Amino acid sequence: MAAFNQQSNPDQRPLTAKIQPDGRALSLKDCEAAGGYRAVRRALGTMAPGDVTQLVKDSGLRGRGGAGFPTGPKWSFVPMGDNAPRPKYLVVNADEMEPGTFKDRLLLEGDPHQLIEGVILAAYAIQADISYIFLRGEYVLAEQRLATAIAEARGAGLIGKNILGTDYSLEVHLHTSAGRYICGEETALINALEGRRANPRSKPPFPQVCGLRGKPTIVNNVETLCNLPHIVNNGTEWFKGLSLTPNGGTKIYGVSGKVKRPGLWELPMGTTARTILEEHAGGMRDGLKLRAIIPGGASTDFLLESQLDVAMDFDTVAKAGSRMGTGTMIVLDDQTCPVGMVHNLMRFFASESCGWCTPCREGLPWVEKILEAMERGEGQPGDLEQLSRHVTALGMGLTYCALAPGAMEPLGSGLKHFRDDFERHIRDKRCGWS
Amino acid sequence: MPTLYIDNKPHSVRDGLNLLEACLSLGFNVPYFCWHPALGSVGACRQCAVKVFQNEQDQRGRIMMACMTSASDGMRVSLDDPEVKAFRAGVIEWLMTNHPHDCPVCDEGGECHLQDMTVMCGHNYRDYRFPKRTHRNQNLGPFINHEMNRCIQCYRCVRYYRDYAGGRDFDAYGSNNRVYFGRHEDGVLESEFSGNLVEVCPTGVFTDKTQKSHYTRRWDLQTAPSICVHCGAGCNITPGERYGTLRRIRNRYNGEVNGYFLCDRGRYGYEFVNGGHRARLAMRHAEPGWLMPTAKPLVLPRVGALIAEGARAIGMGSPRASLESNYALRELVGPENYFAGTTAAEQHLTKTAIDLLWRGPAHTPSMREMGLSDAVLVLGEDLTNTAPRIALALRQSVLNAPMRAAAAMGIPDWNDGALRVALQDQKGPLFIAAADATRLDDAATETFRGAPDDIARLGFAVAHMLDPKAPEVPGLAGETRQLAERIAQKLAEAERPLVVSGTSLGSESILTAAAAVANALSTGTRRAGLSLMVPECNTLGAGLLGGGTLEEAAQAVADGGAEIVIVLENDLYRRAGRAIVDRMLSTAKHVLLIDHTLHETAARAEYFLPAATFAEGDGTLVNSEGRGQRCIQVFMPAGDVQEGWRWISELGAAAGRWAADKWANIDVIVEDMAASFPALQEVRNAAPLASFRIAGFKIPRQSHRYSGRTAMRAKMDVSEPGIPHDPDSPLTFSMEGFAGPAPASLASFFWAPGWNSVQSINKFQEEIGGALLGGDSGVRLIAPEAEPGTAEYPGTVPEPFVPRAGQWLVVPLHHIYGSDEMSMLSPAVAARAPAPYVALSPEDARLLGLSEGETAEISVDGQSRSLPVAVRAALPKGVAGVPAALPGTEPFALPAWGVIARRANP
Amino acid sequence: MLTTETKNEILAELAHSETNRMACIEALKIAQREHGWVSDEDLCEVARLLDLTPDEVDGVATFYNLIRRRPVGRNVILLCASVSCWVMGYVQLRARLLQVLGVELGQTTEDGRFTVLENQCLGACDHAPALMINDDLYHDVDPEQLGDILAKYA
Ligand SMILES: Cc1cc2nc3c(=O)[nH]c(=O)nc-3n(C[C@H](O)[C@H](O)[C@H](O)COP(=O)(O)O)c2cc1C
Ligand code: SF4
Ligand code: FES
C-alpha cells in the first residue's frame, strides 16, 4: 500500500477522502455510507447520457493518464443513438507502468469502489455495454480488491443487467496484464485485450469510433475516472474551484528519490513543484542537494532546480519545456550520476519498445548502448552528436506511437542540462560518480 | 483527379491513393519496406517519410509517412527536403545496425530491396560500433530457407502469410529489437503459398531453397516470359536458366491474372525440367522396354517413310501440349485421325465447360476480377488443390463486402492495419460446396458437403430460387433448401457475384448447375462471373481444337485401320484404364511418342522424339479463363530437344506431306491455325510477331550484367559460340538489345536504375498494382454470346445421391502436391505429396470395421489397390475418395462405384 | 501436461470471454501457475483448448514480460530495475542479492529455489528499492535484510 499523506482537509481532496489510514479498502456498505455511488444513482436516475458528457465537458476535466486530453470532448466522438455500432466499450487504463509513477495504485488499492463508480458513469455517458479494467499484472493487491469490489457491486445491482432497475446494463470485467509498458498506450492496450501482441494501432481511425473488436471504445485513466463521481455530485464550478489554475480539479502528485518523505498527495491542480517537494516531501535528505526533477514519470523532460516554481498543471509545465505527465516526479540529487539516470531510463524504453517501428526498435538500443559505453568509460567523441541525432529522429510523428518520443524527453533535456557530465564521462573515460 | 505538388511541380494522380502509391505511380523513387502493393500500408518501417507542407507559405513542413497519408488535392510534398532525406538515411542506418554484412554470400544479393533502398538513401558509412544481435534459424521444409539474422522487421512476411494467405503456422515472436519471424518450432510451412515469402521479404531471410541447391545470381539468369504449366489457372512466371538448367521460377506480374503471387506447386514444380526423367535425344526401341538414343536423322526419315507409305496414322494430342503442337499433329494426321488424347468422359466435361462459357450470359472473370467479387459460390471444387492461385484470390474477395462498411468509416482501402481492425473477423459471403473439407473453408461463410449429385442439386436449387425458369429441384431436403435460400439471397444482393466450379469431381451436372446459377444472376446490366476450373495448363486450348476421344482412338487401332499411333506429350496411362491403353499400344504397329519426359507410355513407344518443355520452346496455352498466353523459350535446350510442333513439322516434311519450311516459325503456324479455327483468331495477338523490334532491337533474355559469357563454355571450347538464332520470338539469347520496357507478353526481366529487386515492377506498371505498361498480356478467346436476362437452362437435375449397400461412390480428391504429373517429378514438390490412401467417412469406416491407417482393399472397374484408410469427418456417407492421379493410386477412372473391404490378413 | 484443474480453469475463462483470442493471455497466466513458466507442451495444450495454433499463442506469449517460456525456480524474484529504484540503490541491492544467491540475473539457484529476474517499475517508487517475490511486494529493501526476506521462501 502506497504511503499517503492525510493531513489536508478531506473536502479539498475528494479522490482520496475515503482512503483509510490503515490501508484497508472500504466495503461496499461502508463506501456507500461515506457517499459512494450517490453519483451513479443520480446520473442514471435523473440524467440523460448526453447530460453526463456535457457535464464532464463543462468541468474541463482533462485525462490524468499523461497526455491531458480533455475527457468530455473525447467521449463525444463516440457514435450514439440506436444506430451506433454495438457493443460499445469503456476501458480503464490501470496499466501504470511508467517508471516513477505509482498514483493509480493508491486509488486502486485504497478505494476500488470509487473507480467502479467512475466506470459506471463514463460507461453510461457513452452508453457502453461492456467495460474492461486493464490492470497491471504486478498489482496483486489491487487485483484482489478490485475483484472483491466488482463482485460486491454486481451483487448490489450496481453493475450487470438493468443497473438499479433502469434499462441501462453494463458488464464489468477485470483483465490483468501480462506486463509490457506499451500496453499503457491505448491502442496497444486494446490489442492486448483482444489477446494479441500489443503493438499500437494506426490512428485514425480513433478508438472512439473503431476500437476494441472494431467497435467504439473509450480508454480512460484510473484517476480520470475517479474524478467523475465528484463532478456529478458537486458540479463543475466546485470542480474548477478545487484548482489553482484553469486546469480544473485536484491532482495526485507524487515524489520519489532521495527526499525526506517520498509519497503521494492529493493537492489542488497547479500546486508548484517546489511546494510539493519542500512542504509535502519534506525536502532533500540531509547532505543532498536537488539538481533536477523529472516532473511526471519517465517520459518527461528534466526541470532544473531553478524551474521548481512552475505550477504543476498541463499547460504551465508544458510552457516550462516539459510535461506534467502523470504528476509523479523523480528527484535527481547532486550525488547521483545524471548519465547513469538517463542510461537507466533508456534501458527501460529500449527493452519496452514493442518492436513495431524502426526508429524506436533500433534507435533506442543504440542510445542505450552508447550510454552504457559511457558509463563503462568507453564513450567516444561523436557519441553526444549521435545521441542528439536520435533525439531529433525519434521525435513525435516520426515514430509510430508516443513511446519513443517520450523516451527522448529525458534524453534530450538531460543532454542539454547535464552536458558537462556527459562530456566528462567521455573525456575521463569513466563515470566519476561510482 | 487530385493535383499534388511534389517539390513544387504539379502532378495529377488518381483519387484514393496514398502518397507513396501516388509518388511511385508517378515514377518517383521513394524508399519503403513495410508497404507492399498487395498488402497495403501499416506505417511500421518509417522508411517512406516525406515532407508535407500546409500551404505555399509553410516553409517548415512536417515529416509524414507517405504510405499512411492520403494524397489529397493541392497537397504540397517534398521528397528532396534535406531534413527528410536525413531521416530516411537514418532509418536505413538503424535497419543496418543489426543486418549482417553478408551480401556476397546471401541469396538475395543483387536483387535485394534492402540493398536498393540503402543505396537510394545514401547510407554508406557505419557509425554503429556495437555487436549485432543474432538469431537461430529454422528448418521450414523443402521450399523455404530461413536466415533470421538478415531480418529488418518490416512485418511483411507475417502480414502476407497470415492476413493475406490465411496461414496460421507462422507468426511474429518476442518484442523490442529481438522480434523473430517464423514458426513456433522447426517444421514445414503449411501454407500452399509459402513460396511468395521469397518475394515478399525485402531481404534474404526467406529465400528459395530449391534455387539454393543450384544457386545463380539474378543477373546471371537467362529468362523469358512464360506460363505455369501445373494447373489450368495460367499464372505468369519468369523461369531463370543458367548452364542449361532451370534454376528457379519467379512470379511474373500480370495485373489481370496472378498479380504478385504464385502457388508453391507453380513455384517449385519446375525441377522436372532438369530431372532424371528427361530424354534429350531422339530414340528408338532396341528391345522391349529399352529406348536407345539414335541419331535424329535416322529416326525422322524412318517414321516419315512409314507415314508416307500410306498406313493410317492417328494422332493423340494432349491438354498439356501447346495449341500449336496439338494443331500441328492434327494437320499431320488429318482431322479425322486426330484424337485429343483424353477419355470421352474428360472431353465431355471440357466441352461442356467451353459450351457453357460461350453461351453466357454470365461471363468468365479474370483472376483479378475474381478477387474483386463480393459474393462467391464455389460448387464442387477444392480450389486450393485444383487451381491454388484462385483460392488465394477468393480469400481476398471475402474482404470486399465488409470493406465497404470500413470505407463508410473513412478508412481508405490501402490502410491495411486500420482495415483489419475495423473488419475483425467479418467476412463477405463465400459459400463452398465440396465433397470433402477444403483448405479455403476457414474463409467461408458456410460450407456444404455432399456427393457430386447433391452438390449439383444445391446449385440448381439456388438457380431456381434466383430465376424460376431454371429447373426445379424435386425432393430437396429442408436444410439444403434453407442453405440454398441463404446463398441465393447473398448472391442476388451482390454487385459482383461469382460462381466458381470445375471438372475436378467429374460431374457434368455440377458444371451445368454452376452455369445455371451464374446465368440466373445475370440480369439487367449485371453479368455475373462464371469460372470453370479445368485440370491442365491447356485443357481449354485442346478442347477448342476438338478431336476424337481416347476410346475412339483405341477402337481405330483395334479395328486394324490405324497402324501408326503418334502420341504427343501425353502419358496415356494417366488418362485411361491400363487395359485399354495396353491393348492400343500393343496392337498398333508403330508407336511414336513426342514428349519431354519419360513415362510408362514412353516405355511402350518404338520411337521417341524429345520435345521441349515450357522453358525450352514456344507455344500458346489457354487457361481456364479462356485466356491465350504465350510461353517464350527461355534457353537453348541440349540434344535434339525442340517444340512438339517443330518435330511434327519436320516429320510432315520427312513424310512428304509438306515442304520443310512449312512452319518456319511460330507466327506461321499460329496464322494457319487461326485460319482453320475462327475461335483461335486472337491467338495471333498473344504476343508480338517474331519480327517485332523496338527501335530496331530485339529484347534480351540476359541481363545487362550477365557475367561469364565468354568463360562459361571455355572448358569445352575457348572460342565463344555465336548467339543462337531464335526464329520464334523477338527475344534474343543475349544481353544485347533494347533495355527499356517491352510489351508485357515479352517482358520477363524487370529492372530499372536503382531497382534490382522484384519491387522494380513498380516502374513497369501503368499505376501501382495496375496493368503493366501497354496493357497486361494474354488474349481472351471466349466471350459470352447471350445477353443478360436471356438465360437458358440446359441440363437436367440429378436425383439425390443414395448410398449403396456394399458399394461406395469413389471420387477423386485432388492434391496440390501429388495430382499434377510434372510437378511430382520435382523433388521438393514430391516431398510434400501425401502417401496414397482411401478416404472414408467415419460412419463408413466404422461400418467396414476399419480405422485410420488400416489397410483397405479398393476395387474400381476391375482394378484394385490396397490402400491405408484415412477417416475424413467431412466426407458424406456412401462416398469414398482416393487422391487424384497420385502415383500409387492411379489410374482409376473416377468418379465410379467401387467396392471397399477390409484387407484379408496377408 | 496441464492438470485437469488448470484446464478447467482455462475453459471457464474461455466461457466468459468474448472471443477465444481474448482468453489467450489469461489462459497463459493460468497455465503458468503450475510450474512458474509455460513449456512448449503446455503452450500447445493452451492452443488446443483455445482453438488457436501454437504459433499464435507463442507469438502472444513471447511478447509479454510476465509470461515465461523458460524454466524458473520455485520462487521468482522480480527485482525492480526502474529509475526510482535505481536512484535509491538498486545497483547495490542487485549486487547483494546475486551474491547471496550465487547466480547471475536471469539464472536459477542450483537448488531450484530462486530465479532472479529484472522487472520494470513495480509502482513502489516512494519506497524504493523494491522487489517482488512471487506475489509478495517488498519495499524499502535494505540489502542487509535480504537474508530475512529470502528465508520465508522454501
Ligand atoms: C507508451 C505509452 C504508455 C502509456 N501508459 C499509460 C498508462 O500506464 N496509464 C495510462 O493511464 N495512460 C497511459 N498512456 C496514455 C494512454 O495512451 C491514454 O492516453 C490514456 O490512457 C487516456 O486516458 P486519459 O484520457 O484518461 O488520460 C500511455 C501512453 C503511451 C504512449
Ligand atoms: S514507438 Fe514504435 S516500436 Fe516503439 S513502442 Fe511505439 S510503435 Fe512500438
Ligand atoms: S513503407 Fe511507409 S512506413 Fe513502411
Tell me the layout of helices and strands.
The complex is a heterotrimer of chains A (434), B (906) and C (154).
Chain A lengths: L27 H6 L4 H9 L2 H11 L11 H5 L13 E6 L8 H8 L1 H15 L3 E6 L4 H16 L15 E6 L9 H8 L23 E5 H5 L1 H14 L8 E7 L6 E6 L4 H8 L9 E5 L8 E2 L9 H6 L8 E6 L4 H15 L5 H18 L7 H11 L9 H15 L1 H10 L6
Parallel strand pairs in A: 1-2, 1-4, 2-3, 5-9
Antiparallel strand pairs in A: 5-6, 7-8, 7-9
Helix pairs in contact in A: 2-6, 2-10, 3-6, 3-10, 5-7, 13-14, 13-16, 14-15, 15-16
Chain B lengths: L2 E4 L2 E4 L6 H7 L23 E5 L8 E4 L10 E3 L3 H16 L15 H9 L22 E3 L9 H9 L6 E3 L6 E3 L14 H4 L5 E3 H4 L9 E2 L2 E2 L8 E7 L2 E7 L12 H5 L14 E5 L2 E4 L2 H13 L3 E5 L6 H11 L4 E2 L4 H16 L7 H5 L3 E5 L3 H4 L1 H10 L2 H9 L7 H8 L6 E5 L11 E4 L2 H15 L11 H16 L3 E6 L5 H14 L7 E5 L5 H7 L4 H9 L3 E7 L9 H10 L2 E6 L4 H4 L3 E4 L8 E4 L4 E5 L12 H11 L11 H11 L22 E2 L30 E2 L46 E2 L27 E6 L13 H4 L7 E3 L1 H7 L6 E6 L2 E9 L7 E5 L12 E7 L4
Parallel strand pairs in B: 1-5, 16-17, 16-23, 18-19, 18-21, 19-20, 21-22, 23-24, 24-25, 28-29, 31-35, 32-34
Antiparallel strand pairs in B: 1-2, 3-4, 3-5, 6-9, 7-8, 10-12, 11-12, 12-13, 14-15, 14-25, 26-27, 27-30, 31-36, 33-34, 33-36
Helix pairs in contact in B: 2-3, 8-23, 9-23, 10-18, 10-19, 16-17, 16-18, 20-21
Chain C lengths: L3 H12 L8 H12 L4 H11 L3 H8 L13 E6 L2 H5 L2 H12 L12 E6 L11 E3 L2 E3 L7 H6 L3
Parallel strand pairs in C: 1-2
Antiparallel strand pairs in C: 1-3, 3-4
The site of FE2/S2 (inorganic) cluster has 13 residues of chain B, from loops.
Give a quick precis of the structure.
The complex is a heterotrimer of chains A (434), B (906) and C (154). With 906 residues, chain B is of the alpha/beta class. Chain B is built from 26 helices and 36 strands.
Molecular structure report:
The complex is a heterotrimer of chains A (434), B (906) and C (154). Chain A folds into three domains: 13-240, Rossmann fold; 242-333, Ubiquitin-like (UB roll) (Roll); 338-428, de novo design (two linked rop proteins) (Up-down Bundle), CATH 1.20.1440.230. By secondary structure, chain A is an alpha/beta fold. Chain A is 41% helix and 11% strand. In chain B, β21, α18 and β22 (529-533) form a beta-alpha-beta unit. Chain C has 154 residues and is α+β, with helices and mostly antiparallel strands. Chain C has two domains: 4-63, Arc Repressor Mutant, subunit A (Orthogonal Bundle); 75-151, Glutaredoxin, CATH 3.40.30.10. Chains in contact: A-B, A-C, B-C. At the A-C interface, β3, β5, β9 and α13 of A face α2 and α5 of C. The complex binds flavin mononucleotide, iron/sulfur cluster (SF4) and FE2/S2 (inorganic) cluster. Iron/sulfur cluster is lined by residues 182, 200, 353-357, 360-361, 399-401, 403-404 of chain A.
